[in-house]
Design goal:
The chain is an alpha/beta fold. It has a single domain (2-377), classed as Rossmann fold (3-Layer(aba) Sandwich), CATH 3.40.50. The chain is built from twelve helices and 13 strands. The protein has helices spanning 2-15, 58-83, 98-107, 121-126, 131-139, 172-186, 208-219, 239-242, 265-283, 310-320, 322-332, 338-361; strands at 25-28, 32-36, 41-44, 53-57, 113-115, 196-201, 224-230, 257-261, 286-291, 378-379, 382-383, 389-390, 399-400. Strands 3-8-9-7-6-5 form a six-stranded mixed beta sheet, sandwiched between helices. Strands 1-2-4 form a three-stranded antiparallel beta sheet. α7 (208-219) links the parallel β6 (196-201) and β7 (224-230). The longest helix is centred in the N-terminal third of the chain and has 26 residues, at 58-83. The chain is globular and about 70 Å long. Bound molecules: thiamine diphosphate and magnesium ion. Residues 68-364 form the Dehydrogenase E1 component domain. This is Pyruvate dehydrogenase E1 component subunit alpha. InterPro entries: DH_E1 (IPR001017), PDH_E1_Alpha_Subunit (IPR050642), Pyrv_DH_E1_asu_subgrp-y (IPR017597), THDP-binding (IPR029061). Its cofactor is thiamine diphosphate. Keywords: Oxidoreductase, Pyruvate, Thiamine pyrophosphate.
Length: 402
Amino acid sequence: MFSLARSSLNAAKRAASGNSLKLATRTMSSDSVTFDLTGSFQLHNLDTAPNNEITMTKEELLEHFRLMYTMRRMEITCDNEYKARSIRGFCHLYDGQEAVATGINAAFEPEDSWITSYRCHCISLARGGNVANILAELFGNAGGQTKGKGGSMHFYSKENNFFGGQGIVGAQVPVGTGLAFANKYNAKPGEKMNVAIACYGDGAANQGQIWESANMASLWKLPMIFCIENNHYGMGTSIERHSSHSDYYKMGNHIPGIRIDGMNVLAVKEGMRFVKDFCGSGNGPMYVEMMTYRYHGHSMSDPGTTYRNREEIAMTRSTRDPLEFVKKTLIDNGLVEAEEIKAIEKEIRKHVQSETKKAKEFPDVELSQLFDYVYAAEIDGYKQEVPDYIRMPDYAKSFWKS
Ligand SMILES: Cc1ncc(C[n+]2csc(CCOP(=O)(O)OP(=O)(O)O)c2C)c(N)n1
Ligand SMILES: [Mg+2]
């Protein structure tokens, strides 16, 4: 027990490493501020590096804050709705990790491809989803992003180049490598390629299929980003107990890597601008390690306090919270008054409330449409497949194809 608590505290120290909540300011003009990012990156096998500063306008910072606060409120709503049993099944929340999805999205173009694990609600939101459709998917009704048939782990939006939510740990990585292959294949000669990113966890990072994907991506110089969201725990196991080494950004061996302070949205944005530029220019893949933290347990069925202690969670919240960081950056640099932030928070809370109401008002999925969109509607003239047998929870209500 003692060693577990110790390793858990080590993890907390690492999560808390990097810049403190306060970001040093370099220069200021009337409508933008340049921030110092020194200490936010660690490099592996790279001759070039991201800039050690980033210039942001008030509007850009506010936009990031709005998205991150919407994510936070949406995940808190999921927690409440799950406890009220309006959401059933698996449900993995992203609060604590908001700066990662927000910063990547800020560096990406809509044409870049993105695929992730089951912890996918907020990435789907960043990628152009809306709160009502995301919650409707969790409620399992017809207004959901995948028509209420996927649930928490299976968001998907082809028009936003978001290739989902995967329930199988690591499965997104070979598929993401395939997306990178497609992006290279479809690129116009001489032009920058769109990149593909696969986000996965520290627990997934030692899987064989990831090494295999990395090998092909490197061999074929694919514009592929292997992005490890290191929240310091797998499904109840700290990195000290599940990985023989913890420098995840060096895991690609000869493949270049970068470790980024994943609690600082500006570091994520600037770091990912560099990574996208590197991979999209034909230099091959890169390993990216985002140092982050999850506040909730692994999923809603895990209280999240048996393998780490409450002090660790409280310490991260008070010293490294990604939202407090943006808020403080805005206020300390005189870009907004605290009152303005409070008003924005109030407006977003109301928005999430009304989206929740809207999400609940969509109708149930029609039984006759249960298999629409599950299999391809028509392939080479063949009509959509319906399985021969459907096992319902109540055996007597199961179906056989007549
Ligand atoms: C192949 C496979 N093995 C095991 C599981 C069960 N499982 C789900 S998540 C998880 C831990 C993954 O941890 P990590 O990769 O760190 O991601 P995080 O949940 O921290 O985001 C496990 C073991 C699974 N879904 N798929
Ligand atoms: Mg993890």
